[in-house]
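INTERNAL AUDIT FORM
Audit reference: QA-55
Scope: verify that the stored structure record matches its stored sequence.
Auditor: D.O.
Record contents follow.
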Amino acid sequence: MPPEDNLIEAIGLLQQKGIPFAVYQHPENNQICVIAQVEPVHMVHNIKEICFSSGFLIFPFESAKTGIGYFIKNNLYACTNTEINELINRIKKIPNRVKEETKTESYVLSKPEYLNIARRFIQKMKDGKLQKVVLSRIKTITPDKGFNSASFFMRLIKKYPDTFVYLFSIPDEGTWVGATPETLLSQKSNGDIVVMSLAGTMVYPDNGEVKWGQKEIIEQGYVSAFIRERLLKLGIHNFTESAPITVKAGHLAHIQTIFSIPGKSVNNNIDKLIKSLHPTPAVCGLPQNEAYSLIETHEPHGRKFYTGFLGPWLLNGKSDLFVNLRCAEINGDTLNLYVGGGLTAESNPEKEWQETELKAQTLKRGLRSKRSPR
């Protein structure tokens, strides 16, 4: 890994210059890379547009409806210490971008408001109108004075080495940071594809003995059934599916199933596969259209990049897209933490609220320096 000071300097310079960039740690090899482009970020209206371009993809939740996302080309790309030093020297030559700091207003659901919406959603599922809906909320916190997004990113990669940790900034669109455990889709250098079904959440017990309730097992089963159905609908039949296992992500446990697909089954239609998968029931619900409509109507805040997807695209011969969970929008002197959970007919509103509190801890723990009390 490049020295921490070099990475922090590179990130600080990129922010100072006001150019689109992303810095991320890949959970597969813990490699940290920085990617940036000097010109304005590229708007993507169809993933097919960038099927032969290398860079970093960022699609918001609402891209499920609009199809529009962002693409940072790899004009500047560095992973090793030597490359980071070269990148720093190149960035220093770029003029600073004059930009006024603006703070966006986002609606923060109170607990009574959240519980009220959750009860209404759960009743719809008890009435048989839906199987699952994911309800999210924003938790706003104020970090200590001297908060630095680059240092925050560095603390997250140390705390959560098994997740995809990132920090990205798109001028006029925002700066986000996160540590997500969920892969949407990964394409290896040989063309083979992996899709992940991840759902169910509980605190990982000290003794390592995770016992799942029926609600969590059913919830994760919905996601797996959805992926299975989407693959078959695209004519992809020769995939393999692992048995569900428990995986640890920081202080939380989830249920995971892996779908492996031979590259030749997808050919040049990876864009169709991505479009068919987003948003999965893990972040939206079932049936997809009805759940999306409920979210759009009843969540008083825009999800923006939360529960969208992002990741390196065609870099070093492979692509890895992750569902944007456990994330925060850096909003002036505050952080907007985006958290949510899957509601089913068996859900308890109070427990669902507590689950969102647990998920918020992922990023809140990253705010604590070594000298902070635990």
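Auditor finding: record pair retrieved intact. Residues 370-374 have pLDDT under 50 and may be disordered.
Action required: none
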